[in-house]
């Protein structure tokens, strides 16, 4: 009976963790470039262990946390500094934690002409340097599909002033989340040039969180949590009855 009680308890804890994860995803349903988080679970006892060690009862635990890097919808804004990646790859930005990768492209122009994220971090070029855009040309700027940045004068002549770094990683599972939309590549991780992409100016990539999917998941997890909770209450009542029988004996 005790093992069954703890099995129900592990199931309830697992559902609580899943509900918390879903709540975090829903909180970022409108965050540009956000990638939904997922939790995978596993049984502690496998195969014959469930019979020998678990006596037919098993327990749940978290196997791992990961980000789903599937693309979110592109939303047209008309802002020339809103940039989206359609396809593979990440922008590179510089922070106090080192260079980071992100899909969030709602950039701004700093007072000194640097291209920055909306939180003020420098956006990097394909050469790893910060990108500067002449202030007098900041209203006439174009980003082509390869990420080349050009200023356009009154005569329609364009001058390339830089190129966005669009990179990919060998294995996205190795990326470590630093901020809600920014990730660090570990020292042994491999950064590779992105290939299957095009840069879209005047648009941003929305969150890949599907509200309907997440709400359905939360309802299912809540039902399971209630079921486990009811089982735990039943074990509690059985324990009380056994105590009563023991005192009578």
List SSEs in N-to-C order. HEHEEEEEEEEEEEEEEEEH
Q: What's the helical proportion of residues?
A: 25-40%
Structural class: alpha+beta
Number of strands: 17
Number of domains: 2
List low-confidence stretches: none
**Whole-number average pLDDT?**
84
Q: Give the spatial strand order of the biggest sheet.
A: 13-14-6-5-12-15
What's the main sheet like? 6 strands, antiparallel
How many helices does DSSP assign? 3
Assess the beta-strand content as a share of residues: 25-35%
First-residue to last-residue Cα separation: 20 Å
Shape: elongated
Radius of gyration from CA coordinates: 26 Å
Description:
The structure is a single chain. The chain has a six-stranded antiparallel beta sheet, with no helix packed on it. The chain has three helices and 17 strands. The protein folds into two domains: 2-70 and 209-248, no CATH class; 74-205, no CATH class. The protein has helices spanning 2-27, 48-52, 211-248, and strands spanning 37-43, 60-67, 74-76, 83-87, 90-95, 98-102, 108-109, 115-116, 141-143, 148-152, 158-163, 166-169, 176-179, 182-184, 191-193, 197-201, 203-205. It is an alpha+beta fold. 28% of the residues lie in helices and 30% in strands. The two termini are 20 Å apart. It is elongated, with a radius of gyration of 26 Å. The longest helix is centred in the C-terminal third of the chain and has 38 residues, at 211-248.
Give the topology, please.
Blueprint: H1 2-27, E1 37-43, H2 48-52, E2 60-67, E3 74-76, E4 83-87, E5 90-95, E6 98-102, E7 108-109, E8 115-116, E9 141-143, E10 148-152, E11 158-163, E12 166-169, E13 176-179, E14 182-184, E15 191-193, E16 197-201, E17 203-205, H3 211-248
Antiparallel strand pairs: 1-2, 3-17, 4-16, 5-6, 5-12, 6-14, 7-8, 9-10, 10-11, 12-15, 13-14
Helix pairs in contact: 1-3
């Amino acid at each position: 009976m005790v093992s069954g009680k703890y099995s129900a308890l592990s199931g309830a804890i697992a559902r609580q963790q899943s509900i918390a994860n879903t709540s975090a995803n829903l909180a970022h349903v409108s965050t540009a470039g956000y990638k939904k988080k997922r939790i995978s679970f596993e049984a502690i006892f496998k195969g014959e262990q469930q019979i020998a060690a678990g006596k037919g009862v098993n327990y749940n635990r978290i196997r791992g946390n990961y980000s789903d890097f599937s693309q979110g919808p592109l939303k047209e804004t008309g802002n020339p500094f809103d940039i989206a990646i359609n396809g593979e790859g990440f922008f590179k930005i510089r922070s106090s934690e080192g260079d980071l990768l992100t899909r969030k492209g709602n950039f701004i122009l700093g007072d000194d002409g640097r291209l920055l994220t909306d939180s003020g971090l420098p956006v990097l070029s394909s050469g790893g340097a910060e990108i500067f855009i002449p202030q007098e040309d900041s209203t006439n700027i174009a980003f082509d599909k390869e990420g080349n940045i050009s200023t356009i004068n009154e005569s329609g002549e364009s001058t390339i002033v830089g190129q966005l770094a669009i990179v990919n990683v060998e294995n996205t599972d190795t990326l470590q989340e630093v901020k809600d939309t920014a990730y660090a590549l570990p020292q042994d991780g491999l950064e590779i040039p992105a290939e299957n992409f095009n840069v879209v100016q005047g648009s941003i990539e929305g969150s890949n969180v599907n509200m309907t999917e997440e709400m359905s998941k939360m309802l299912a997890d809540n039902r399971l949590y209630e079921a486990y909770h009811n089982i735990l209450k039943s074990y509690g009542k059985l324990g009380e009855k056994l105590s009563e029988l023991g005192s009578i004996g």
